[in-house]
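Sync notes, pocket subgroup
Present: LS, DG
LS reminded everyone that the earlier model was apo-only. Rerun requested with iron/sulfur cluster included. Inputs:
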Amino acid sequence: MNLLEVRELTTAFSARDGRTLRALNEVSFDLAEGEVLGIVGESGCGKSTLAKSVLRLIQSEQGSVCFHGQDVLQMNKAQLKRARRSMQIVFQDPFGSLNPRHTIGQIIREPLQVHGIGSTRDQQRRVDELLERVGLSADVQTRHAHEFSGGQRQRIAIARALALQPELLVADEAVSALDVSVQSQIINLITDLQAELGLSMLFISHDLSVIRHVSDRIAVMYLGRIVEIGEADALMNDPQHPYTRALISAIPSLAAQQAVRIVLHGELPDPSDPPEGCAFHTRCPQVHDECLRRRPELRAVVRDTLSIHSQAAHSSACHLNESTP
Ligand code: SF4
C-alpha cells in the first residue's frame, strides 16, 4: 500500500538574471507504508527542493503529491494543517532549526500546542517520553539549544518531529552537519525509530555510503531528475546508470571491489541552463552521439536474472539501458 504517490513533480525558481531554474523536473515515485526511500545526489541536484515540494513548504509548478490518496498540492489551508500532522521533517542544520529563545521543553511541546493535542499534563508526559526515546534525560527540557552539542540538538529536532506521531518522516541531510562518529549514532537512532514506529521515510543525503545503510530503495538524482531508482541491494550491486556507478566507486569501503575508480570531471551544470539531450553527457565516461541529441527516459531495467517485480522496481534513464534486450 502506498502512503505517498508523487507524479511529474516540477518546481521552478526565477534566477537573478530572469532565467527560470527548474530545480525539480517531472519527478515521480511511490513510497510504501513503512518503507525508507533514500534520495541521493550531489549538492544542487534538487534533493532538498524535492523534500520541501513534497511537504508543500515551497510551491511547485505542476504535478501531484498524493498522501493517502489526497493531493497535498490541492489541499486548502485546513486540510494542509491536518496533513502536516502526519508529515514531518528533520532539517540538516540542528543549529538553525531550533528556536534559540525557547527551552527544549517548549520546542518539543510546540507542535502539540499548535494542533491542540492533549491537556497540559498530557503534553508534559509526551515531552518526557520523547526525550527519553531519543536518548536524552527529561531534565534537559529547561535548558536552551545552544547548551547542547550538534548530535544532541539533532536528537531534540527528531523528538520534536515525532511529537505528533507522524506517518511520514523526511530527513533532509539530517546527519550531514555532524561528526562521523556522531553521524552513526543518529543514523542508528533514526533506523531504530523507523522500525519501531513503522514510519515511512524519505532519507535525503549527498552521501551514498549513508543512504545504503538506511534505505529499502534508493533514488539517484541528477540535475532535478531521478536517473536511477531501485531496491537498495539491486542498485548497489548492479548499478545501471553511469552516474550511479561513479557514486558507488567513490565510496572508500567499496572502492577496492571496483575494477576502476570512476572519477567525474567538471561540476554539476547550471540548472538554469541544462545541457541538451542527457543532462549527464558533459561528465559521462560513456557518452556517445545519441546522448547529445535525445534525453533518455526512466525505463524499467530488463535483465534475465531479475524477477518481474524487481524489473518493475529498478529503472534507469540511460540510452545504454534502452538497448538491453
Ligand atoms: Fe551517459 Fe549517454 Fe547514458 Fe547519459 S545517456 S548516462 S550520457 S551513456
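DG: The first strand starts at residue 2 and ends at 14.
LS: The chain has a mean pLDDT of 91.
Action: DG to write up.
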